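One example copied in:
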Amino acid sequence: MNRVILIKYGELTTKKGNRNFFINTLYQMILKKLKNYDVKISKDISRMYIEFNDVDLDQILDRINHIFGIHTYQVAIKIDSNEDIINQNVIDYIISKDFKTFKVEVKRCDKKFPISSMDYSRKLGGLILKNKDNISVDVHNPEMLLKVEILEKFTYIYSDTYKGLGGYPVGTQPKGMLMLSGGIDSPVAGYLTMKRGVKIDAVYFEAIPHTSIEARNKVIELTRKLAIYTDKINLHVINFTEIQEAIYKNCNGEYTITIMRRMMYRIMEKLAKKYKGLIITNGESIGQVASQTLTSMSVINEVTNMPVIRPVACLDKLEIIEIAKKIDTYETSILPFEDCCTVFVPKHPVINPSLDECLVNEEKFDYKAMIDNVLNNIDTVVITEEDSEFKDFL
């Protein structure tokens, strides 16, 4: 008895002329994620098939559960399309299951098979009733829905369907640049951005000695957790100390956060152009803090013409936390190490900043030279889920 994982694409099938590109990207991602396992992967226009070593099933399913682009999957028995073989395997299958009510659905994809789908469903139902005690048929709400798909050469038998992550495989869209702090929101934003197929580079702004090495390590760990959903993520660490100190010393205290974010956006745009990113993405949520009011967002956004994607903009904090827990970033995010967005927060940050006031304050120091210096001293490390190209960087 051979088993195979059947993967259904879902949203990928809406792509018509581009469908093969999306399927091939998913295929390549699955190959990368399962490279350490003894598997054979094949595909057609509607489904992917993964043959595997039984001892690896749990680990393989864990990998599949972290791959975008999969709508649903099943673990099925793969047998020859022969009536006697199908009958015996159905009996063996149901004996191993615990249920009180059931329904059989046969899908006869190969019309040369001598029994119609409806007739064979009834026949298999009778066979099951004869071979298992204390069960009954329930066509409306069965405990077990047994599915039998008959193709020309092979037949697949399964009963449980599992939900995948959905979305698009990472790599079906070009690169985006993620502003990754150590907080709760930005890792969730990175996850949701990747779910739409966008490959991300992460960018972390640090201000040593005002921020700590522990804060950097937290961001590295968050990046590693996000890398579970792709193959690798480039993390660019920005030394923001000089700029942040200049803002603190020279600018109106109420405007320090606004001007800091404007500087970050200027740097992000230049980084995006350098590393071929087409968007900036971040964890801003409307109204959550002073820099995320609509007025603040508008004034901050004024420094760049690049699209800024805010995946969590319309979610409340509890909704964001729920996703953070689901993707296992929450406990890391709440570790008590401050990033540069929280170190210099004024007591009364402006919530409706004036663009003119920002421009006046920014003239008080040579931020352009400082930005050029930052861009010439970027530390970049490639992070994968296994670990650990970043160990020498710590």
About this structure: The chain has two domains: 2-163, 171-393. The radius of gyration is 27 Å.
